[in-house]
């Protein structure tokens, strides 16, 4: 009686999803959901491209959590999960041009236009606190 790989992966990544959704970040799991919220977005929107990699756990998700303690925050908070919700992630990445696909990554959009982006290589080489400071600076600049 074996467990399917898909079910195993869903069960394994659920805590990684919960780490962001517990912060009030809404998961987008289909391309239609992504397009529905990003196509005509007004105000500021944070999109976290979640990932199973260690740098997502050690730096990206904790950095986002700390940044969201800031008094100034984006109007809308969303996440897609790279490698899990592949079509939704691909659709979200269309809004992050000219940056190549990167996971984890963190995008800040203002009125649908990308204004700040943190790529994987900027996550790998920094602490959660440094990522939080970067995001907080972007929130203070673009979300007021």
Short description:
With 144 residues, the chain is of the alpha/beta class. It is built from 6 helices and 5 strands; from the N terminus they run H-E-H-E-H-E-H-E-E-H-H. Strands 1-3-2-4-5 form a 5-stranded mixed beta sheet, with helices on both faces.
Write a structural description.
The chain has 144 residues and is an alpha/beta fold. It has a single domain, classed as Glutaredoxin (3-Layer(aba) Sandwich). It is 47% helix and 19% strand. It contains 6 helices and 5 strands. It has a 5-stranded mixed beta sheet with strand order 1-3-2-4-5, with helices on both faces. Strand 2, helix 3 and strand 3 form a beta-alpha-beta unit. It starts with a helix and ends with a helix. The model has no long low-confidence stretch (mean pLDDT 94).
């Amino acid at each position: 009686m074996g467990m399917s790989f898909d079910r195993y992966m869903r069960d394994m990544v659920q805590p990684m999803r919960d780490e962001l959704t517990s912060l009030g970040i809404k998961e987008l799991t289909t391309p239609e959901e992504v397009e529905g919220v990003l196509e005509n977005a007004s105000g500021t929107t944070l999109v976290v491209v979640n990932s199973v990699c260690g740098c997502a756990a050690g730096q990206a998700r904790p950095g986002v959590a700390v940044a969201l303690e800031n008094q100034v925050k984006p109007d809308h908070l969303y996440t897609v999960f790279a490698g899990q919700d592949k079509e939704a992630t691909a659709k979200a990445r269309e809004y992050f041009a000219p940056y190549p696909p990167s996971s984890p990554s963190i995008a800040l959009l203002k009125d649908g236009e990308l204004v700040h982006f943190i790529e994987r290589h900027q996550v790998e080489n920094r602490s959660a606190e440094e990522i939080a400071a970067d995001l907080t600076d972007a929130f203070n600049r673009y979300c007021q």
